[in-house]
Amino acid sequence: MTIAKTRPVSDYPPGGDAFRHRHLIGIAQLTPWEISYVLDAAEQWVDLNRAGAAKHDDALAGLTIINAFFENSTRTLLSFEIAGKRLGADVVNMHAAQSSVKKGETLIDTAMTLNAMRADALVIRHQSSGAVQLIADKVDCPVLNAGDGRHEHPTQALLDALTIRRRKGKVEGLTIAICGDVLHSRVARSNILALTLLGNEVRVVAPPTLTPPAIERMHVTTFTDMNEGIRDADVVMMLRLQNERMDGAYLPSAREYHALYGLTPKRLEKAKPDAIVMHPGPMNRGVEIDSSVADDPVRSTITEQVEMGVAVRMACLDILTRRKRKIPGWA
Ligand code: NCD
């Protein structure tokens, strides 16, 4: 299937048939068609964001979005907050440290409380895989998954796909190496789902201890040798070593990890000469990626990923609240 750079709106089924979901829980529920619909919707916000106005649209005026983050976040929380505000919504942030969760409230009670507040959309990050779906099942408004445990982080995969599409002119038929701590990474899972679905060759490059069992079932090729894994790749996507998710010794040392799996300028020479380097952040500089690679103005897309994050989240908030806003064809 060909995903053109931007499809004309007339290419999509009309109204709500273009994106049939009430929630955005994972990439696993989406079709290639729906992914490209979100990416095309995001493109318009990229241009407007670059134009610099603080608020672009009153589309979401009068709506309240609650960002309920049960796990720490800097860029994802900020990105959702900015996205909501640029569309004119009232945005409220709830941090777990300040919530009753710390006092032992169950997830269902939290969901019922959030529901009673009559939010128009909930953006949830939670440390447990499946928690966001559980809350979505209990509330009346659209729920967007901002990362649940090791499961999924769909807006990250969408912003990564948009970044690749803009840099490479397409997001199909590319060789993409996802490298590092794949075992603990919801970013890797969502990206593998999205990028294989769109028709790319996806490689997973990781030490055996950080390679999820049976990952080949996700239609990827696995490598334990980094030099082999990134050979002739169009895209090298690095992942953070998720030390907070490691309850034992997965690695001898950060130093040895860097020697075998760190992305250095020398190692990057194995990839295609025009290969781009991605990282979802936050980075461990000098561990999975050298600063000279991360800050390379030509190859690194790291700040562009952050920029695309705002546009993609604007698109997702807009699309998922259309039913509520009774947009013709979506009600
Ligand atoms: C990622 C996450 O939280 O899953 N970060 C992010 O959303 N930008 C990746 C990570 O924490 O390493």
UniProtKB/TrEMBL annotation:
Keyword set includes Transferase: yes
Residue ranges of every copy of the Aspartate/ornithine carbamoyltransferase carbamoyl-P binding domain listed in the record: 22-165
GO BP terms: 'de novo' pyrimidine nucleobase biosynthetic process; 'de novo' UMP biosynthetic process; amino acid metabolic process
GO terms for MF: amino acid binding; aspartate carbamoyltransferase activity
Magnesium found in the keyword field: no
Binding-site residues for L-aspartate, renumbered to this chain: K103, R186, R240
Cellular-component GO terms for this entry: cytosol
Pfam families membership: OTCace, OTCace_N
Residue positions binding carbamoyl phosphate: R75, T76, R125, H153, Q156, G281, P282
Pathway participation: Pyrimidine metabolism; UMP biosynthesis via de novo pathway; (S)-dihydroorotate from bicarbonate: step 2/3
Domain Aspartate/ornithine carbamoyltransferase Asp/Orn-binding: residue ranges: 172-318
Record-linked InterPro entries: Asp/Orn_carbamoyltranf_P-bd (IPR006132), Asp/Orn_carbamoylTrfase (IPR006130), Asp/Orn_carbamoylTrfase_sf (IPR036901), Asp_carbamoyltransf (IPR002082), Asp_carbamoyltransf_Asp/Orn-bd (IPR006131)
Key words of the record: Pyrimidine biosynthesis, Transferase
EC number assigned by the record: 2.1.3.2
UniProt similarity note: Belongs to the aspartate/ornithine carbamoyltransferase superfamily. ATCase family.
Subunit annotation: Heterododecamer (2C3:3R2) of six catalytic PyrB chains organized as two trimers (C3), and six regulatory PyrI chains organized as three dimers (R2).
Functional note: Reversibly catalyzes the transfer of the carbamoyl group from carbamoyl phosphate (CP) to the N(epsilon) atom of ornithine (ORN) to produce L-citrulline. Catalyzes the condensation of carbamoyl phosphate and aspartate to form carbamoyl aspartate and inorganic phosphate, the committed step in the de novo pyrimidine nucleotide biosynthesis pathway.
Protein name: Aspartate carbamoyltransferase
Organism: Sphingopyxis witflariensis
